[in-house]
Amino acid sequence: MRAAVVRTFGGPEAAEIVEVATPEPAAGQVRIKVAAGAVNPVDLAVRAGLFGGPEAAIGLGWDVAGTVDAVGDGAAWRVGDEVVALVPGVADPLGAHAEYAVVAADAVAGAPASVDAVHAGTLPLNALTAAQALDLLDLAPGAKLLVTGAAGAVGGFAVQLAARRGIEVTGHARPRDEELVRSFGAAHFTSGGVEPGGADAVLDAAVLGAAALEYVRDGGVYVGVRPGTQPAPVRGVRTDAVQVRADGARLAELVRLVDEGVLTLRVAETYALADTAKAHARLAEGGLRGRVVLLP
């Protein structure tokens, strides 16, 4: 099969398409024939060598939507099931950007019925990140939450999920994105900041870091999206960062919210797997309000 890998760290051109053996599922695993999968900033970081490791073949891609085509012993899925899954890892030889992907059966959820595979392939990584970040924040209904990068993939999901929990959300984004962010359920919008100490918590999807702490009240909470890069605690503010993990049961809940119209899936551009380098270059340019999706 064909797969996108990086063998020498570098720019978009370092994302190569190679021929490799089609993987076989072991016990408790399923193999998915990939229909679509989003390209995310973490893919660019892996390609550039930000996570280090040996310069051997490292697979690219975390998001997958497709069809189960082989099942290992004990895996509770059937050939032909349409599914989505998270394929986490920054040093594995194969990722989701391939013609086939093997994942743990408990990382898989049935695909949304209301959208096509292209849109479904934008859900797992960013929606799970947003949901698990909100778990770390542990806010009660009525709490005041600032979401930075509220027009982006993680930020947009976070606004929608938090608003659904009854949290009072202020969305932080560029002025041109105000209508979009409010449509996600944000009660307030800012393109600058909020009153110092005016928020109970911040979910820092824009990776502002220490600059975002001034908006959090004493004893509040900060959660970032890059593990190990959260700022040091100040004024009793608890700081943490989400390290996304595969969770098929949680992903199934998010799929249900897609079908209920709670979560919005946005696609900006699609590329063939052969054009992975072009997809990486386009994502790196920025300015997108939707995901770049690869179609094997």
Automatic annotation (TrEMBL):
Alphabetical UniProt keywords: NADP
InterPro entries in the cross-refs: ADH-like_N, ER, GroES-like_sf, NAD(P)-bd_dom_sf, Zinc-ADH_QOR/CCCR
Xref: SMART domains: PKS_ER
UniProt domain Enoyl reductase (ER): residue ranges: 10-294
PANTHER family with a match to the protein in the record: QUINONE OXIDOREDUCTASE (PTHR44154)
Protein name: NADP-dependent oxidoreductase
Organism placement in taxonomy: Bacteria, Bacillati, Actinomycetota, Actinomycetes, Kitasatosporales
